[in-house]
Write a structure and sequence with these properties.
The structure is a homodimer.
Chain A lengths: L4 E3 L10 H10 L10 H18 L6 E5 L2 H12 L4 E5 L2 H12 L5 E4 L18 E5 L1 E2 L4 E2 L2 H10 L4 E5 L16 E5 L11 E5 L1 H12 L10 H8 L10 H17 L1 H20 L5 E2 L11 E5 L4 H10 L2 E5 L8 E5 L6 H13 L3
Parallel strand pairs in A: 1-13, 3-4, 3-5, 5-8, 8-9
Antiparallel strand pairs in A: 2-10, 6-7, 9-10, 11-12, 12-14, 13-14
């Protein structure tokens, strides 16, 4: 909202360089370029190279541009599963991935935890599922799933395609590209960009699996099959006219992150997370929703605010800081605070001071 | 491209108010608003109301936001066809719609004309296809299909869902909402907006058909089924995070068009078309690709430029006017000129003068 700094976890606070990049884009005619032009191919390569550099994406991985992370849920199921998928579900978004598999007539299974709790060793099982999904950070509840846990899923299931929903964990949590096969996110969270673009990174195993699913005769969709995405990505193009401006801006913000230093951004994110959780612990009128500190997300920080929710929301907004609402059934009793690179240390210190001093 | 006015038919010249609207969007925090907020619902309603007013969309029609017109090809086939579709094909884009139906395992038929020619009475037939598609304007070849022709398809096929690809015909050609069931477009053509948003308008018959297809047990997809789109549109929302900024800008440009007067825009478009075709006729070194004047598009004007193609391209570009390339196999022998509202009368007069005077 106008004049407020928003801590909503997506669409979220726009990264401070974005408006300048947009102005530059208009100055140089980017919004009118053809998506079949050399200029687009260059811009698209700049963006994927930026992501590769930022996260150390291995060379056998390809990077695709789609319309949203939601689209990746659907496309991955269409392209990579003939029969069975397995979904680690610990909140509304990971649950939706599982639900999509049901809607597509697959035979999915969900391993569920209570909202606000993370996965434990007992949740790891061997399965014959072709695709296993796990959200590195469940945006609805602020629960994270560690790379260590993901590595144990992998250990038990060397054959499955392991896909990581990194929607609200990137750029903070480094994906372990040796452990997993596929990682996706959307740009309106950690990258601080306007909504309307999803990014899907896949390794060669994922592409081989898509090929095998096709061989088996399954219909995989049309313009956004992995095959189509891959064929076009090889030319730094897309199967249909994409959100050109979104790709341009993502490339620019990757460069900004690289200049700032990804490790600097990450340590600042950890610092901001620490001060806010600390403030929670110093105020008796609220508490972290996620009780186990090991499962607490650093990038989406959720507070149980009970009866004080509206009061705290208004109090913070009155100071120019707009919290995110609790998700779904928690709307009236929780607040969420995105901790993305667009939000400065100073804004988190101010937020934390206000939270600490809050009296209902 | 920088400094050039582009006549490429999409992504195309940005409408001259867009940059100001973007600045205003950033000033008021639009890129950060939640797609579940009242602010978004209002912005989304403004956009659909603008479209309704601009085209006189009847009240039983709903308007959905998706990622592209390409997506509508896929979603319409998934949602509206159990067995059979029929596609009027007169160029690369209408052909792709037909191809999508094949990829989805349907049993589609295509009624084809040669590229550069339009449909004639003999092409109208009675069919038991559930969906009939026709492109009001085939962007690859600059051939238009008249409402009169569409009305004769309807006459012979009162039961089928008749869907019109209006990608490069809007806002110039008024859809006849009494004749057809579904109309779609993307915003990077006639609306002069950055790419990354598609709009799909459907009547109640279309929704009923989607319901019947669902009843019959067909899988229709996940988040972008007509049912999901409809349920969310009722609240002025979308099933997943959309291109919020794109919807905002489309609403603003609709208002700009309304202020300018849609009839003024249309008569100016006709004027611009007339002067350019006139220039074609006065230069022996090129000619309109579409020989039958009744089938010539006013919004995408295609010239057969043969061996002179590169020379004419360079000559026009040297004067600050960038033609669009010919499509596909015509890349080396044709040039295309979009005639959208973003391109002024003066720019068309200049273009026409240059074309008239061109000597290879």
């Amino acid at each position: 909202m106008k004049g407020l700094l928003t801590f909503a976890p997506g669409p979220s606070q726009i990264y401070f360089t974005v408006e300048d990049h947009l102005r530059e884009a208009f100055r140089t005619g980017i919004p009118s370029i053809s998506h079949r032009s050399k200029t687009f191919e260059q811009l698209s390569a700049d963006c994927t190279n930026g992501l590769r550099e930022l996260f150390g994406v291995p060379s056998d991985w390809e990077i695709y541009f789609v319309s949203s992370a939601t689209e990746v849920w659907e496309r991955s199921l269409e392209n990579l599963v003939i029969q069975k998928s397995l979904h680690y579900v610990n909140g509304a978004f990971s649950a939706k991935y599982h639900e999509f598999a049901e809607q597509l007539g697959l035979n999915p299974r969900a391993i569920k935890t209570m909202e606000g709790t993370g996965f434990l060793s007992e949740h790891i099982e061997q399965t014959d599922a072709e695709l296993i999904s796990v959200a590195q950070n469940e945006t609805s509840t602020g629960v994270r799933t560690t790379n260590d846990f993901i590595s144990r899923i992998r250990e038990k299931n060397p054959e499955a395609i392991l896909i990581v929903d990194a929607v609200s964990s990137l750029p903070h949590l480094q994906p372990d590209f040796k452990l997993v096969d596929s990682v996706f996110f959307s740009v309106q969270k950690g990258f601080g960009l306007p909504a309307g673009l999803g990014v899907w990174m896949v390794n060669s195993r994922t592409r081989a699996k898509a090929g095998a699913v096709k061989e088996a005769g399954k219909l995989q969709g049309t313009y956004h099959t992995i095959q189509q995405l891959s064929d076009h990505a090889a030319k730094h193009q897309t199967p249909s006219t994409p959100n050109v401006l979104g790709i341009y801006l993502l490339g620019k913000v990757c460069r900004d992150f690289l200049r700032r230093g990804i490790e600097n951004i990450r340590s600042e994110t950890s610092y901001k997370s620490t001060v806010l959780y600390q403030a929670f612990s110093e105020n008796d009128h609220l508490k972290p929703f996620v009780s186990n500190p090991e499962h607490r997300s650093e990038t989406v920080i959720v507070a149980d605010t009970g009866d004080h929710t509206k009061k705290l929301y208004d109090y913070l907004s009155g100071h120019g800081l707009q919290p995110g609402d609790g998700y779904g059934k928690f709307k009236a009793t929780q607040l969420r605070f995105a901790n993305f690179p667009a939000l400065s240390k100073e804004s988190f210190e101010k937020l934390s001071d206000l939270v600490r001093d809050f009296r209902p």
